[in-house]
Amino acid sequence: MKRRSFLLGALGVGGALIVGWSFLPPRSRIGTRDTLPPDADAVTLNGWVRIGRDGTVSVAVPRSEMGQGVHTALPMLVAEELDVPLALVRVEQAPFDAIFGNVAMLVTGLPFHPDARQSALVRTSEWIVAKLGRELGLQVTGGSTSVRDAWWPMREAGAAARAMVLEAAARHWDVPLGDCSILDGVVRNIDGRQVSLGTLVGALREVPIPTNAPLKDPRRFRLIGQSAPRLDLAEKVTGRARFGIDVRLPGMLYATVRTCPIIGGGLGRVGSEAALGMPGVVRVSTLPGMAGSAPGVAVVANSYWAAKQAIERLEIEWHPGPNAKLSSAQLMLELRHALATQTGIAFHRRGEGAAALARAARIIDAEYDVPYLAHATLEPMNCTAQFVDGRLRIWAPTQLPSVLRHVAARSAGIDSELVDVTVTLLGGGFGRRLEVDFVPQAVSIARDVAPAPVQLIWSREEDMTHDFYRPAAVARLTAGFDLNNRPLVWITRSASDAIVPQYLRRAYPDFAVDYPDKTTAQGLFDQTYEFPHRDCAHVAHESPVPVGFWRSVGHSHNAFFVESFIDELAYAAGRDPFAYRRELLAKHPHYRTVLELAALKALWGRVRPGRAQGIALHESFGSIVAQVAEVSLANGGIRVHRVVCAIDCGTVVNPDIVAQQMEGGVIFGLTAALHGRITIRDGRVEQSNFPDYEMLRLAQAPVVETHILPSSAPPGGVGEPGVPPIAPAVANAVFRLTGKRLRSLPLRPQS
Amino acid sequence: MEIKVNGKTTEIEVDPAMPLLWVLRDVLNLTGTKFGCGIAACGACTALVDGLAVRTCVTPVGSVAGKAVRTIEDLGGIGLHALQQAWIDKQVPQCGYCQSGMLMAAAALLSANPRPSDAQIDAAISNICRCGTYQRVRAAIRSLARVVREGM
Lengths: 751, 152
Prior knowledge:
The structure holds 2 protein chains of 2 kinds.
Chain A: H1 3-10, H2 15-21, E1 42-44, E2 49-52, E3 57-61, H3 70-82, E4 89-93, H4 103-107, H5 120-136, H6 146-150, H7 153-173, E5 180-183, E6 186-189, E7 194-195, H8 201-204, H9 233-236, E8 253-259, E9 266-271, H10 273-276, E10 281-287, E11 296-301, H11 304-311, E12 315-319, H12 328-341, E13 345-350, E14 362-370, E15 382-388, E16 391-396, H13 401-412, E17 419-423, H14 438-449, E18 454-457, H15 460-465, E19 473-481, E20 487-496, H16 499-507, E21 533-540, H17 555-572, H18 577-584, H19 589-601, E22 611-620, E23 623-634, E24 637-648, H20 655-674, E25 680-681, E26 684-685, E27 703-708, H21 726-738
Parallel strand pairs in A: 3-4, 8-18, 16-17, 20-21, 24-27
Antiparallel strand pairs in A: 1-2, 2-3, 5-6, 6-7, 8-11, 9-12, 10-11, 13-21, 14-19, 15-16, 15-18, 19-20, 22-23, 23-24, 25-26
Helix pairs in contact in A: 3-7, 13-14, 17-21
Chain B: E1 2-5, E2 8-11, H1 20-27, E3 46-49, E4 52-55, E5 68-70, H2 82-89, H3 99-112, H4 118-124, H5 134-151
Helix pairs in contact in B: 2-5
C-alpha cells in the first residue's frame, strides 16, 4: 500500500463523516450541570466539578487508576485553577458522556514522523482526528495520554468553577466581584470576611456557567509542578482500597473458568458430574468464546476456592482446531521469511530512501529479535456482574469502560443504556485491561444465576495462558556511510503481527477497518538521528497468536533495535557511544539536551572496576527519555546496579509521580530484558505462572534516579516512556563489558 | 472450626483444607489480603500467623487453628502502623495491589530484626511488585530501621 492511501486509511475511521462536520466549531468539553448524576448534598458546577455542603470538592475523573497516579494528577489540574487544597478534593467516577472521551489518544495515534510535526498535513490531520475524538467520546486509559488529554478541559473546568465561586461570593456579600478572592479553598472578602465553600452551595445554584473564564498564568501555579502526595495511598496501605476482585455484594457467588488451552481450539464434551457433586458448587456453564476469549467452561460456587476445586474435577475434551502444531519457534522463522521476502508498508521515507545505499562506501547491518511477552498484572483478570431490575450491572477493573459497556450490552443482547459500569481500582493494567474478553464470560455466568451477583476470577494459569501478548518481532537495520564515513542512509525493515486490526476485530468489530498499524512500527520509523536518506518499512505478518497492547507497545522492542544498532555504529566508528549519539543529534537539540543530562548525572565514563555503563535515548508518547545503566556480570547473570534517567515530558504536573513512573518503567522493561519470554508449543502457551515467567524482585532491583528537564511545553506522557530505553541501555553496557553484542531479548550473555 | 483473626475469634464452617487466603477473603470478607498466583510465588497473600509472614494461598486454614492470624486490616490497630506511615512518607504504592503483602512481609521482618541489613531485606522481601516500587519499599523499611536506631 502506498503511504498516501494508508494515511487516508488511518483517518478512515468514520472518514465519510469527516466531510460533514469538519467545519463545525469544536465541541466544548466543559459539560453542563446535568452531565453528572444528581447529588442532593452538592452543587454541580459543570461536567467535572461539584462542591459539597461539607466544603469538599468532588472531581469527576474519567480515567482509570492503575498505579500511574491519575487519580491524583488529574484532580490537581482542577484544584490548581479553582485554588483549593488537594486535601479537600474527592475523586468521583465520571459517567458516560462525550466530554470525557480521550481525544489525545486518537490524535497521538497518528503515524507521523517528529520532523513533520509542523507540516500542514499533520496539523490538519490532527485537527480532524481531534474533532472525531470529541464526537466519539471514548473513555479509555492508555497511550500515556491521561494528563495530555485532561490538560485543557480539566483546567478550564476548574477555572470556570473558580469564576462561579467568586460570583457566588459577590452575591453572598452583595459586594463587587473584584472584592472577592479565593486562595487555598478559603473565599475572602476584601474587608476581611471569609466564607467556606460549603456555605456558598445555595448561591452557586443560581450562578450561570461562564463561557470564557481565564486560565491561570503558569507562573502563578501553586500546585502544578509540586510533588503533592498521592490521594490514593492511605487506602492502599491499610487494605481498604477496593480493586475489582474486592467487590463484595449481598448474596454474591464466585466463578472461575477454564478455557481452551490450544490457540484457536474449541470445546468438546464436558463431564461435569464430579464437579457438580463438590461442596459449595452451584452450577457448571459452558462459554462460547467471544470478544477475544476462548471457548470454555465456568464453575459457579460459594467461594473462589470451591469453584477452583471443582473446575479441576471437570472432564473436558478440547477440539485442537487448526493450530495444534503452532510453535513460537516456527513463528519466528516465518517472521524472518516475511522480512526477507516482503517489502511491507513504508512508514517513513526521506531523500532517496534505500536507493542511496548504492552510493554507500561502507555498510553496516544487523538483525534483532524479541519474543512474545505476557502482561502479568498482579491482580488476575476478574469481573463482577449482576442482572437485576431489568438492568445489567458490571464492576470491573478496566482501562476501557466505553467498549466494556458496548461489549457487555452486545453479549447480553440489550441496549447499552441498560448497562451500568463501575470502574474499580486496577491491580495493574499495562494494556491488558484494554481487553474486554472476560466481560462476555461474566455476563453469561451472571445470566445463568440471575438475580444473584457473581464474581468471575481467573486463576493465574488462565491469566498467563490467555493473554494478548506483546507481539514477537524481528528487525533488520542497515546504515550506509559515505567515503568520509559520514552518515548517508538509514534503513529499517521489521516484521511482527499487527495489533490494532486484531484488536478491533475482537473488541470493536463495528470499527474493524483493516488499516496499517502504527503501533508495532512506532519508535522504529520515527527516530531522529540524522541520516540524509531514510527508509523505514514494516511487514505486518498475521499469525493466530492473540496479540495486544503491552506497556509502551511497539516502542518496547523498537527502542531495543534502534538504540542497540546506534551503539553498534558508534563502536564500528571507534567512537564513544554518548559522543556519537550527540553528534547525530546536532539538528535535534531537544533530544540532545535530554541525552546530555542523563550522561552528566550518571558521570558518563566514570565507573568503578568490574562495571560498565550503557546509554540509550528514546522518544515515546510525547516524552523523550535517556537512561544510563550501570551493569556488572556475576555468575553469568546480568546485574543492573543503578539507572540514571533523564526525561523531558513538557510541563510536569507532579514530579514525584513522574519519578515513580520512571522507576516502574525501568523495572517493567528490565523484567522483560532479563527474564521475559512467552513460548508456544503444540498450540499452547508454555508458561503458566511466575516460576516459569519470572519477575524482577527487590533483590535484583536497581536504584533509579530521575532527572526532569524544566519545560513550559504542554505535558507529555509518563506512564510508558520509561520502559523502552532500559533494554538497550543494559545490552549496550553488557557489550562494553564482554565485547559481545546481544541482539535478542531476553539478554543471555552466555548463550 | 474456630479461627482467631485480628484478635477476634470466629466460628466458621469450612473444609480445613481451604487455604487461609480464601477464608479471609470469601468467608470473612477481609479483602485486604490479595490473590496473585495461588502457588506462594508472588507474596500478594502474605499475612502474619503468630507473628511470622506466611503465604496464605497455600496455608490450609486447619493449620492455623489456635494461632493468631493478623491481616493488613489490623496492622496498625486503630491508627497507622509505623510501616504504613513510612509507606506514605516514601510514596511507595502505585497500583497498590501487592502492597498489603509487602507491608506484612516487612512487618514480620522488622519485628524479628529491627535493624535489617540490605541483604536481610533482600532475603525477607521476595514479593512481586509489577509496578516496580522496590526501591521505595527498601527506602521505607530503611527509614524505619533508622528510627528504631535513633530511638535506642
